[in-house]
Design brief:
By secondary structure, the chain is α/β, with parallel strands linked by helices. The chain has a single domain, classed as TIM Barrel. The chain contains 9 helices and 12 strands. Helix 1 links the parallel strand 1 and strand 2. Helix 1 packs parallel to helix 2. The protein is globular and about 55 Å long. The protein binds iron/sulfur cluster (2 copies). The site of one iron/sulfur cluster has 12 residues, from helix 8 and helix 9.
Length: 302
């Protein structure tokens, strides 16, 4: 059941992290207007099962007044609201509280701050901690996402299969992470990558929407364009087994995807997402309406 709509309010970000699965950066295009936000929220009401609206990016605080207005609109419609930010704006406690003060009466139920080595080089004092402490003071519920440089660990027999290397750090190997972070990491044989471990391809659970109209189940994997077909209709008519990418993924993961389309592939990959992303890249010209936007594959828009 679709429970959450996550606005990729903008693809623009002041950072350009190695692990960014959306390839965001200062030059990324694609920011929602208020009129577009209103349209999506009206459709969210029609869907009937949506409880949560998230504002994220890119970095949503780069478009603070629009984010704030979007939150007000969602709040007026009775949705619970979440925000995900890299907290670049939290320069000191007093200022961070000023940034967050306007959010206190607006139904913000989850304020997620990314607290990564990639942003803050593992310093004990960083903006993420300032942002969280300001939110705590204002009684805004907080959580954090922490993604660190991938490291290979050998787990002992009691913890895990004997001698099997495990990649720690929490990076998902999609988008820019595949260009920048996979070298030297252990690999698994392609035929063992038999399921999608992270996304609810059947029930959806949550989708990410962007200003181009894409409804993404996973980064760059869309069920359709809501500027062409209303969002509520896209969700209602979604048949996972008939979707040209989700169908094979549901039947047998990325391994099935390469079998179904006879895609040339390597013998092994870092994980399911690494293989899935590479297979999808090979299919991008065949299914441009589902494998989009191209920019999250590091490609220019056509
Ligand atoms: S991971 Fe987050 S902070 Fe880093 S570039 Fe992507 S959107 Fe920006
Ligand atoms: S990249 Fe593919 S395997 Fe990984 S979460 Fe997304 S859809 Fe699933």
């Amino acid at each position: 059941m679709l429970n959450g709509i996550h606005f990729l309010l903008t693809y623009k970000c002041n950072y350009e992290c190695d692990h960014c699965f959306l390839y965001c950066g200062p030059h990324s295009e694609g920011t929602f207007t208020l009129e577009q936000i209103r349209n999506v929220l009206d459709e969210a009401v029609k869907i009937g099962t949506i409880e949560w609206i998230y504002y994220e990016g890119g970095e949503p605080f780069l478009f603070y007044p629009i984010m704030l207005e979007g939150i007000k609109l969602a709040n007026d419609k009775g949705f619970k609201i979440g925000i995900v930010t890299n907290s670049y704006w939290a320069t000191c406690n007093e200022d961070a509280e000023v940034w967050l003060k306007s959010l206190t009466k607006l139904g913000v139920k989850d304020f997620t701050v990314s607290d990564d080595e990639f942003h803050f080089e593992n310093k004990d004092y960083n903006q993420s901690k300032v942002a969280r402490s300001a939110a705590d003071k204002l009684n805004i519920p907080t959580s954090s996402i922490s993604i660190n440089e991938p490291k290979v660990e050998m787990r002992s027999e009691s913890e895990y299969e004997k001698g099997k290397p495990v990649i720690s750090g929490g990076v998902t190997f999609r988008g820019r992470a595949i260009e920048t972070l996979i070298e030297g990491l252990p690999r698994t044989k392609w035929e063992e990558l038999k399921e999608c471990p992270y996304e609810d391809l059947k029930g959806l659970g949550r989708v990410h929407v962007d200003s181009f109209g894409n409804v993404q189940i996973c980064q760059g994997l869309s069920i359709g364009n809501f500027w062409e077909t209303p969002l509520s209709e896209l969700v209602r008519n979604y048949k996972p087994d008939n979707h040209p990418i989700c169908g094979p993924l549901l039947r047998g993961g990325p391994a099935q995807l390469v079998r179904d389309y006879d895609i040339k592939h390597k013998d092994s990959y870092v994980d399911e997402c690494h293989m899935c992303y590479k297979a999808r890249l090979a299919l991008i010209e065949k299914y441009p309406q589902y494998l989009t936007p191209r920019q999250v594959y590091g490609l220019e828009e056509e």
